[in-house]
């Protein structure tokens, strides 16, 4: 039932699909279309992380694994700037201060990182502290490809720098990172952002 509801909600995207064999199209939908919204979101998340990991692995094979950390950092930095711009455009009264990091991160979690959870410890103009925890899809794909030793963690550090630079914030960033369950690729990050006086 949920699959039919999901398909109905996505009918604008799927409206141009045509297949003359209606019975076969129905079978394809039943077997291949996500059963739930959760499955859809997790599948998209897995594809995103696989693309990231496979690309880094291919760069490593072609140019050397000593090059992939720089590519990873540059990519996350750029994504941080893109997400900051998207938030700024969607959230017209968005505060441009230490809370900006949290707002952009929550936007990224809601849209692309469903296996992460967040816990806000302190949120104010001058200081914002929050935890991010759960399955780290990037750690998972890098471990699966046996290339995680070539990447500096947390991979989200440059993402935060991208946010900072987009909003031109003068702040101190403290980031603590730990792998809490290596078998399940679970991590915990604690972020503290403090505005500095100019």
Written description of the protein model:
The chain is built from eight helices and four strands. With 198 residues, the chain is α+β, with helices and mostly antiparallel strands. The protein has a single domain, classed as Muramoyl-pentapeptide Carboxypeptidase, domain 2. It has a four-stranded antiparallel beta sheet. A hairpin with a 4-residue loop joins β3 and β4. α5 packs across α8. The model has no long low-confidence stretch (mean pLDDT 93).
Question: How would you sum up this structure in a few lines?
Answer:
The protein has 198 residues and is an alpha+beta fold. It has helices at residues 2-9, 11-14, 22-32, 37-63, 68-90, 99-112, 137-144, 157-167, and strands at residues 116-123, 127-135, 171-181, 186-195.
Topology (SSEs and partners):
Layout: H1 2-9, H2 11-14, H3 22-32, H4 37-63, H5 68-90, H6 99-112, E1 116-123, E2 127-135, H7 137-144, H8 157-167, E3 171-181, E4 186-195
Antiparallel strand pairs: 1-2, 2-4, 3-4
Q: Please count the helical segments.
A: 8
Proper CATH architecture: 2-Layer Sandwich
| Helix and strand composition category | alpha+beta
Helix content: 40-55%
Distance between the termini: 57 Å
Strand content: 15-25%
CATH-defined superfamily:
Trafficking protein particle complex subunit 3
Shape: globular
Q: Spans of 5+ residues with little confidence (pLDDT < 50)?
A: none
